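It is worth pausing here to work through a concrete case rather than discussing structure prediction in the abstract. The textbook approach is simple: state the sequence, then state the predicted structure, then interpret. We follow exactly that order.
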Amino acid sequence: MYKMKDEFKTNIEIIDQQHEKLFEITNEAYMLLTNNFKLDKYDEIVGILESLKDYTQFHFETEEKYMESINYKRLFSHKIEHDSFINKLENLDLTHIDSNQDVSIKELLQFLNDWLIDHILQNDKLIGES
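Step two, the predicted structure:
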């Protein structure tokens, strides 16, 4: 189960609220993976991916505007990481996902887990310290 913990807080309310939503979407993927009663999960996987794409674009825009407003010196490198995340989502192979649904959910969860832990703890928290 994925849940936002205090250690992930940046102390920037709007960013923390949006990170909470990213944890919720990640938890949806986890719940889908552990649902043993659903054999064909493709439509739900695609729905989660669409939610993730839409929400991360919204979140990244919010975060980048905030960084601009405080003249954050690492904005450019931070934006590159955001663009890389979006690019990864946009280039997922839906045929592979359809053929390997549980494996694909596990791969997505690993990607999101790494992102949430590494990006928030190593990069986003620095914004709150500025």
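Step three, interpretation. Helices lie at 13-33, 42-69, 75-90, 94-99, 101-129. The radius of gyration is 15 Å.
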